[in-house]
Amino acid sequence: MLPAALREERQFRLLFAGQALSVVGDRITMVVLPFAVLSIGGSTTDVGIVAAAGFLPFIVLGLIGGVIADRMRRQRIMVVSDLVRMGTQLAAGVLLVSGHAEVWHLAALTAVFGAADAFFAPAMGGLMPQTIDQPHHLQPANALRSMSMSTGSIVGPVLGGLLVALAGEGTALIVDAGTFLVSVACLLALRPREVVRGEVPEPFIADLAGGWHEVRARTWVWSFLLAMVVYHVIVLPSIFVLGPVLMEDELDGATSWAVIVTAFGLGSFVSDFLLLRFRPRFALRTAAMGLGVASCQAAIIGSGLPIAAIAAVEFCSAIGVSGFFTLWETSLQEHIPETSISRVTSYDYAASAGMIPLGVIVAGPVSDAIGIHETLAGMTALGILAAVLCLSVPAVRNLPRGAVRDTAAPDPAAP
């Protein structure tokens, strides 16, 4: 039987269907792109540069995207973003297949992809609660969305590895381009609740400042965001840069990495399944503990264990990763008004994804200087410290459950 959030929330069901396949394509790219760079003669530093190019736009455009998403129909923004990202993946795939790809091509196209994503992500963060009519379905809906990402993390690496082995990295990126069409079709059919905004929009700068006020006024928000910065800057480069490089140097390259990422996806799926029913009394406290577990993944990758053992322990760390993301997003949706949620979400992405380039650019040189295994162990130590400090903040530990909503009405207009 389908979960209640899918049975009873038609608009969420449409959104979920559109994003599920797109996520599979994204996970294919996550596995394939580092090896695409290496396949055309790129270095470890080049892998870091290409990865950073996808996140740098969040620093400049993420906050702008949040303001626009709180002022315009969010699904329109998402449709345009999907079409742009489809174009970049198609161009990158054709360049690789034709043998004309260079590192700067991949970096530039990844940057355009990231720019479109900087508008998509805040719009998605705001649109998701608009598709939910019953507040108690928020956490299960976030768990289902996360479950689609987990499933993508299982299916995507397998497909990515097969596509690379049978047809090459370029073909894999072209397949990802096709998945965006499904997302566009579902978004065009979507009829979310309309968020009642002021008749006269505030000046752009005032709207931007309003988003910052929503963040600054809540200790639990900015405290958790600081911990997220540490996780994304210090821990996640183990996934985007050092993990693939270590697999290429010491194990079986893309095949070994696909095994690890698939195990991670399975662990995430288990966590998401549990969160369909398990509703912790203090969601953010549980999320902070999950962040500590999530930070262990860097040390696990660099542990020197056999690939099967690394995959098994990554399965466990994935439970923490999926749990903290789902409960963090649910906490934002329960406590931030819908008229401001995209701006707050944009600060979330700017403080997390927008900061990743700092880590992925530095990860390669640091690992060259002190050793890749030592770097991975240090990443975990700093990530756990940040999670413990976050958990020590009373506003994080004691945030109650809630559901703050603006007055809303059905949206009869097409996107």
TrEMBL record:
Keywords: Cell membrane, Membrane, Transmembrane, Transmembrane helix, Transport. The chain crosses the membrane at residues 12-37, 49-69, 147-166, 220-242, 254-275, 282-301, 307-328, 349-370, 376-396. GO terms for cellular component: plasma membrane. It is a multi-pass membrane protein. Its main location: membrane. It is found in: Cell membrane. This is MFS transporter. It comes from Baekduia soli. The lineage of its organism: Bacteria, Bacillati, Actinomycetota, Thermoleophilia, Solirubrobacterales.
